[in-house]
Amino acid sequence: MMNTRIKINIVMMVLSFAMLMASLLGFFYLYIYMLNNVENPFGLSYNYTFFARDDTNKLSVDEVIDPDINDLLVLGLDDKEKILYIFDPSNFYLYQLENTNDRGRYFNKEDYREKKDVSLGIRNDIFVDLDQPHQFYQVSPQTDLYHKDIKAYKNLTSISNLPKFIYTDGNNLDQIDNISKTLTSHGYKSYKTSNSIFNLIKNNSNIFTSRYFFIAILGIATYFMAILSIYYYVKSKGKFIILSDYLGGSTRKICKKLLVEFVGSIVLGLFLALALSIFIITYHGGFLSLSLYVKSIFILTLMHLSIFIGSFMIFYIMIYRSLIGSKKEEIL
């Protein structure tokens, strides 16, 4: 049968595994929730980049836009004429437009390739006029594209030069990077929203009422259970501490022996948790940056080790003093 010492170490390994898993997954799912909950212009994702130039610089649309590329969204805003120009080969807005119109169509590849001067309609209320014919979908307040100040929604490739303001978004990161380099080399300045934790909390006023925040708090609260378990773990080593002290072992040597065994258990659980959580996070959130992975995992792992080892040291000192200061015969 498995002896008590091995059982206790397995319990600490499982506890370490469970606590770190809860911390990592709780943090990342809360982070993803906050990213998706931020209101960006025209319903763009948190990966969008905004570009602006002064009125003196001009850049041809043909130098930036390839009508045959996919997985990309480029919006051009003419703030004077109040026109939003759209290049959306990935049909980012198609689903919303299909569900808010009973007839019509969206821009297609042919429109982009042939630089057709075509426009989406505008409907300033949620009601569809069934008697009014229209070739293209109408943008209504139910869609992310809608803005009360926009007077027209046109095909971006139908104009010669890019407007003053540009938005880029999508999954084609290489193409977006090429567009970014072209824009910045022609006088555009890029502005990307910070996705730092503090900035996301600032832009998520309802975060403290969401279930994800409650789950994150619950994950942190479970560390109190871990701390209590560590106390009983150290206390279970009472006889070993007394016997080692009786045989002449110093406080430091006794602590070192127990600590090595303890750290071995929690580190094993830690590596198992890291491996599994990284697999889960990569599968569900591969769009997150590598720097975020590294920083977050490093901070949470460091916090995890600090809590476990710090609690062990505090409880060891407390229990050692209590045991050695009492009658050894009563303990034995």
Question: Could you describe the 3D structure shown?
Answer:
This protein has helices at 4-37, 94-98, 109-113, 173-185, 197-202, 211-235, 238-246, 251-285, 290-324, 328-331; strands at 49-52, 73-78, 83-87, 119-122, 138-139, 152-155, 165-169, 189-192. With 332 residues, the protein is of the alpha+beta class. It has an eight-stranded mixed β-sheet, covered by helices on one side. The mean pLDDT is 82.
The main sheet comes to:
8 strands, mixed
Report the count of strand segments: 8
Order of helices and strands: HEEEHHEEEEHEHHHHHH
Oligomer: single chain
- Structural category is alpha+beta
Strand order of the largest sheet: 5-4-6-3-2-7-1-8
How large a portion of the residues is in β-strands, by DSSP E?
5-15%
Instruction: Report the uncertain regions.
Output: none
Number of helices: 10
How far the N terminus sits from the C terminus, by CA atoms, comes to: 25 Å
Helix percent reads: 40-55%
C-alpha Rg (nearest Å) = 30 Å
Mean pLDDT value: 82
* Bulk shape: elongated
